[in-house]
Amino acid sequence: MSIAEQLQRQHLAALTPYASARRSMSGDGIWLNANEAPYTPSVDAQGDMLNRYPSFQSDRLNGAYAAYAGVAIEQVLSCRGSDEAIDLLIRSFCEPGRDGIMITTPTYGMYAISAQTQGAKVIDVPLVADGDGDLQLNTKAMLAALDGVKLVFICQPSNPLGNRVDRKALQAFIEAVGSRALVIVDEAYIEFVDDSTQASAAQWLNDYPQLVVLRTLSKAFGLAAIRCGFALANTDIIEVLRKVIAPYPMPQPSLQAATAALSTTNIARMQALVAETKALRDDFIQWVSRRPWALKVWPSVTNFVLISVPDATQLVSNCAANGVLIRNQSAQRGLNNTVRVSIGSATEMQKLMEVLP
Ligand SMILES: Cc1ncc(COP(=O)(O)O)c(C=O)c1O
Description:
The structure is a single chain. This protein is an alpha/beta fold. The protein has two domains: 3-39 and 265-355, Aspartate Aminotransferase, domain 1 (Alpha-Beta Complex), CATH 3.90.1150.10; 59-263, Type I PLP-dependent aspartate aminotransferase-like (Major domain) (Aspartate Aminotransferase, domain 2). The chain is 36% helix and 15% strand. It is built from 13 helices and 13 strands. It has helices at residues 3-7, 21-24, 59-69, 81-93, 110-117, 139-144, 167-177, 196-199, 235-244, 252-261, 264-289, 312-321, 346-355; strands at 76-79, 100-103, 121-124, 128-129, 135-136, 149-155, 182-186, 211-216, 229-233, 296-297, 304-308, 327-328, 338-342. Helix 7 links the parallel strand 6 and strand 7 (182-186). Helix 3 (59-69) packs parallel to helix 10 (252-261) and helix 4 crosses helix 5 (110-117). The chain is globular and about 70 Å long. The N and C termini lie far apart (60 Å). It binds pyridoxal-5'-phosphate. The site of pyridoxal-5'-phosphate has 12 residues, from helix 4.
């Protein structure tokens, strides 16, 4: 039995997914099978084929992302942002009221929110400081707390901390979990990590059937508005997610924009923006480290920086009053009086530095 068959919610085993018109029959010809209009009558609608339901999964998009991520097209599911992938995983694998997910706080908030929405339990095994004071996975405690856990969510690199999860520890953890649970490595910010292809867990997919990697076009690719994310996993897991995902998940304009973003030219442009953002980040870190109110500037391999300050609420509202929005992270475990600053354009960072004390 595959790991997906073993862990999925039991009723899904017998479920036949909705056979949408586009999923069951598409190709050249005259399309009269989905109650669509023959054309788009409104004059200012932008884009092609807006009268048609989009593909269930676009081979062009999934193929382009597979090539970019170094995986097989069968290992790709595209969805409405990686937030949808988080929700799909929980809906597919966690029996409400019985199964749980594991998170490692401080971490991205949507794992717990999606779980609570679905009635799945949330087991928190907080990160612990290593010898250098860097917050890292407590893999021993995580392995000890796996009972009843179907999905383990690991944010790599971490939002909100901005650091990397130790790669060796992560691999050893995935191995030790074996077939007891799926390990979800959320790589929303992976493009900002030096040598990101090597740093990604995607290259382990063929070794670990329990691994799922989440990706997005919302961050380095600068396409948050089109809502495009990806779950990368082995085909048995992708098959289960395909049962649960909506019949026409991604809007056609999003599919077009996402596919275009993955051309060689546009990947190079994304990489140029990443390089620019990293340089601005390092300049900002240098600048802010000299401010007396910056009690700790957390090292970052991402496009944001976490800063411990004397009074986060006051700092956030002072910035807002001057037209710059930064994020208070104080509600996160162990992050009392911290703010998170996203790295914007050179002009935006200049304005931020004028506004900060
Ligand atoms: C760690 C992490 N994962 C996932 C997401 C969701 O991204 P999206 O749904 O836009 O792909 C975010 C967004 O901030 C994030 O920080």
